[in-house]
Fold each of these.
Amino acid sequence: MKSDTPVLLRHFINGEFVSSASTFDNICPVDGSLIAKVCEADQATVDAAVTAARKALDGPWGQMSVPQRAQLLHKVADGIQARFEEFVAAEVADTGRPVHQARSLDIARGIANFRSFADLASTANTDAYEMPTADGLGALNYTVRKPVGVVGIISPWNLPLLLFTWKVAPALACGNTVIAKPSEESPSSASLLAEVMRDAGVPPGVFNLIHGHGVNSAGEFLTRHAGIDALTFTGESRTGSAIMKAVADGVKEVSFELGGKNAAVVFEDADFDAAVAGVMRSSFTNSGQVCLCSERVYVHRSLFDKFVAAIKQKTEALKIDFPDAEGVDMGPLISHGHRDKVLSYYRLALEEGATVVSGGGVPHFGDARDQGAYVQPTVWTGLSDDARCTTEEIFGPVCHIAPFDDEEEIIRRVNDSKYGLACALWTTNLSRAHRVARRIHVGLVWVNTWYLRDLRTPFGGVKLSGLGREGGRYSLDFYSDVANICVKL
Ligand SMILES: NC(=O)c1ccc[n+]([C@@H]2O[C@H](COP(=O)([O-])OP(=O)(O)OC[C@H]3O[C@@H](n4cnc5c(N)ncnc54)[C@H](O)[C@@H]3O)[C@@H](O)[C@H]2O)c1
Ligand SMILES: N/C(=C\C=C\C=O)C(=O)O
């Protein structure tokens, strides 16, 4: 989308928008146009943000009661609601996603995240234990939750506002102050959120926003900063590993939501049409740029040919279009750089012996979209379980479909991965569903659905997919320190 005079996206530190000397371009992945210039935080900028966050802990924020904080978070949610279409426009400009997705998922969840953690903080209980003592008078133990302190937040570009607020909301609900860095690929909605925070009356220094890249930029300056007390990160597994090293000397607590190579399993007794529709969603939603997407699809041999034919037909019917086009199913990838990565796997798949059932290249539109970062949704068969395309996270609109014969075999094959984030099982035999679900080594299993979310549940992965859990009281456990107080009666 053309922008005559690109805006300048600035940092938000101590309640003020501040610039920095260097900037980088924010490019629209629909047509390659310049959306904005974005300030790049240097070490001094990050220092200033950490100082402001530390100071705010000792100010009115630190004295605020839980109900007062919760009320403020609801005001932030109200503020996002009041500027809903601006947030939609910001998210769509940065990512090229369908407008209907930005409305129904991204911005809606930004509001829900603030509301759910405001309510959770207000209603969460703590523990108490009465204990007998030798003198017969007993003692009372009770736990209290205290803020961790200054929390560093680093988020990815694939669901920008959703994943940014999924960390900011509980961190603030627990009484912390934050320095939050969105991805360099998707800075716009976070910048709008800073305005909403200011207008809602969040005290200066409580929420600080810094823009920039990772290595040798804002991200790394933040993770290495002695002044943060904890670091929460969502992004690639290898980045998580680098961040773990960066915080190790300070023994800082980390929460990691990382990569995945998730499986969908269609058993012979599945509702066929539901499974086809579900696998289409879990393969191509958000152009496959969701950590929960199914890049590995396993179908019982008895259904395999029919299932592949059905997926082929539906994939070729997907409407790949501008974000605001009527009935659009899929937009571009986030950037030309990411498109190059996905296309390198499209080429690799051929070298590894894939049969291309559908897609495998770049669509030609004959309009501005040819300057965007579009790729064809792609379906493969014929690859081995140990091919790079069936073991490495591609993070694009692609899935590989393989046949299987029995339950024991498929449990072994699904678990044979260095990742362990999510899995979707399609079967009408619910005994089988419960039996298999608990044997899949992941953090999240969906049965006869995909990406259905209750925000009270634990969210996270095992192995290279992450450390810790977010959601409900699991977030409270990360964003607060629990102390036990024992009183002799
Ligand atoms: N498990 C989950 O909940 C979840 C959710 C969304 C995305 N993801 C994963 O995120 C990845 C896609 O997102 P991405 O490309 O933005 O990931 P990424 O790791 O490249 O970047 C994520 C964020 O980390 C920053 N960063 C990069 N290197 C850094 C470093 N050395 N130190 C500090 N900060 C650094 C980036 O600037 C960005 O803000 C995929 O692997 C996807 O699976 C996981
Ligand atoms: N954390 C969540 C989604 C993660 C999506 C990954 O791309 C959520 O829905 O809360």
Amino acid sequence: MRISTKLTVVVATVFAVIGVAGLLTINQMRDITQRSIGSEAVNLAQAMSTLMAFEVTQHAGEARQRRYQELVDFFVTHEKRDIEIVAPDLTILADVTTNHIGTSIEAGERRQVIAQTLRDGQARMTREAATENEPEMRQVVVPVRDGARNIIAALVFEYTPLYNDMTALAAKAFRQLAILALAGAALALGCALYLARSVSAPLRQLTEAALQLGRGQRAQAAVRDASDEIGELATVFNSMSSALHLRERAMESTFNGIMIVDLGKPGFPLEYVNRAFERITGYTAAQVLGKPSDFLVRGDVDQPGLHEIRLAMREGREAHAVLRGYRRDGEPFWNEVSIAPVRSDDGPPSHYVAIISDITEARNDSDQLAHQAQFDILTGLANRSLMMDRLKQAIGSAQRHGERIVVAFIDLDDFKLINDNLGHEAGDQLLREVAQRLQASIRPRDTAARFGGDEFVLLLREGEQGALGEAQLTERIRAVLESVAAPLTLAGRDIQVHCSIGLAAFPQDGADAEILVKHADTAMYRAKELGRNGFQFFTEALQLRAQQQLELGASLHLALERDEFELHYQPQVSLRSGRVVGLEALLRWRHPDKGLLGPGHFISFAEESGLIIPIGEWVLRRACKQNKAWQDAGLPPLPVAVNISARQCAQQELEAVVRAALADSGLAPHYLELELTESISMADPEHSVPMMERMKAIGVELSIDDFGTGYSNMSYLKRFPIDRLKLDISFVREITTDPGSLAISDAIITMSHSLHLEVVAEGVETEGQLALLAQRQCDIVQGFYFSKPLAADALEALLRADYRLPGHLTGRAADAPALLVLDDDTHMLDLLDLVLSNEGYRVHAVSDPEQAFEILARHQVAVLLCDQRMPAISGVEFLSRVRRMYPEVLRIMLSACDDAESTRQAINMGAVYKFIEKPVEQATLVALVAEAYQLYHAGRGQQTA
Ligand SMILES: Nc1nc2c(ncn2[C@@H]2O[C@H](COP(=O)(O)O[C@H]3[C@@H](O)[C@H](n4cnc5c(=O)[nH]c(N)nc54)O[C@@H]3COP(=O)(O)O)[C@@H](O)[C@H]2O)c(=O)[nH]1
């Protein structure tokens, strides 16, 4: 029964008991009151009776009779009491109602009561029935005794007023009592309700919380009053609930799956699974609770691990096993299970807890690891380690059977270029394709392996399928070269890849696996040096070379320390003026034993070994320092170009190195030019563009070296903040003999000019090359024809001598289109002549328009520069005549600022190509004339074409 019901029953019972007791008490009190009233009335009546007896006994007969009446009247008057005196014969002796006197008491109960009292002298109570006029009266009957205690009469005394007063008083007291009782009952009810609320409500809540906890939810009971027992119980419950919840959470958040199995039921059903279990198996808790504990293995029961688990559960001990389980979708997984018994006391276990973890990935990884330890992930070919194992085995077998083994070391040509230009994804695709081709090119006993990067190794063995004599081997290797070189499509582009192969044979080129591979590698390097896309057999001489390379590394280190490097400078010459307009710094190594070595001997090794970084910094510093020294010595200031290697480009510190070289030397930045090769710049334009921008921000000049040899992306070229392109020596070398080289050179020059870049042709060795380049509007040439790279002092001497190209090869050549200048101001005329002649133009300067017409008639004029204000004829008039007669001539007008109207006129008439305002600024003039010349040549080019 609920506590509240119990409390209600208790309260109701208490209330009933109090009610009954109250009623009894009231009844009793009523009785007592009645009796008290009676005894009071008796006492009063007896007192009257005594007084009356005393008064009447002194009289007799009628006197006595009168005295009775007097006394009755007295009492009635003064005491307001209705009294009646009855004689022993029951006649009324005295009465308030006088006409009753002498009458006998009416028969009835009252008469008997009075008669009895007259007989035995006992006081009695009686009532006089109500009449029409009088209400019922309560009366007490007492005897009246004479001095001898004889009953002489009965005194009937009416005590109704007394009774009424007393009962009114009693009723009031009862009412008050009843009110008190009701108030008490209400209080009791209130207390009961309060108790019910303060006890049963918290208990109900506690029950609810306990049920919640049982359902595995977080539950907390409200603590209304921590000081009472229920509050204490709630507090204890809450801390117990928190502790349980913490454990629950811990179990739910663990990475491993947890299952609790009930041993008390058949099949050991699952009683609890956590979230990790759901994640691992794909089942929800609702789907598995109640299922047998081994349901995860499905029908796959013949597993040693499962037997062990079952045995351990029978024996009530812990166990550990790896089982093959099945997820909800049927996918098998490796399940590492640990089980432990759960005992509530010392008895047998009631439950088992199982921790499960999914080790599928780790297990697969270890299988994969074992595979990866031997095979290359990208291509699936054997890796270095497996190849070395097989090679060792093959050597053992070859020794026993007297067979020959050949190791072919293969390296792709220009793989980096492809990787950098087409992206790593394409690079990977290429490697996979090459791997397949190599695999297809070998026989069953052979092995193809990838050693890493773009290096592959073939192990070729003699056997039933063929011998490995030189002829057979050569044939097979050629087949490999051809197979690799077959065209393929990469990143949407059709490309062809070649490779270089080095060959080393057992037993003659090495007795063990390591040596054979090393020698094949050395031979491969030689194949690369000899032009790539070929193969080389290992020789002792190659071994010697490789040895020398090793030594080179060591001595390069020393060279830096011992200051054995020096710079030579090769002049760059303007094809217009014939004058030196720049220098290229080229590194040389003054070797203590071998003398002066060019970069070909060491620069690629320095690049590979990383030594190029300190060497490159040395070059930058030395070139800046030397250039500043020449400027300080009064030589014409010239920019010096320094070659920047790929490693330097990739170096974060390059900017700081350049800044330091400039700051330490004091050279103005625009006198330093950095030459980056086309392949470096295009390899990773996303890196090279910002790098170039940083360099331009310093103020240095930039050029692209060896242009035309790499894969140039024209959209990037447009983004490069460069100043000039260097036409590669390979085109220049054949420019006079090969139409292709000429066409490419032409295209590069035209494209450069349209991008406002200058073109420097490298490796100009002959006058023919130079003349052709000049004719094709190349700006600058560099090469042995003008000067080989010179040591600093020799170069200084050349500059001091103002050594130039012969005039007939420059813009001043007799057949070069002339520049005609017409100005009546002879001072101005001389100045223009000087400036433009120095720029290499064949200038005709005249002050008279007649002379100008004469020159136009006799010479091929490309550009005409004419003053607007002349006395004989206005510039506008003169130029418009020239336009009609020689439309191909580019006409530039020199105008004063107040010549706006005539300038406008000239432009409207189409008489001028451009005008230039006086005072003329030299740089603007030179640039404008150069642009006009380019336009002239372009127009002529079109005409010729
Ligand atoms: N990273 C650095 N690379 C450098 C540095 N110094 C040089 N180099 C690079 O080495 C390459 C070979 O240089 P070098 O042997 O000095 O050859 C240069 C010239 O001597 C040569 N040249 C010049 N004119 C002619 C010619 O008419 N005919 C002919 N056969 N050769 C000629 O060309 C080389 C200059 O080439 P380039 O740099 O492309 O302008 C060379 O490629 C340098 O890049 C260095 O300090 N750091």
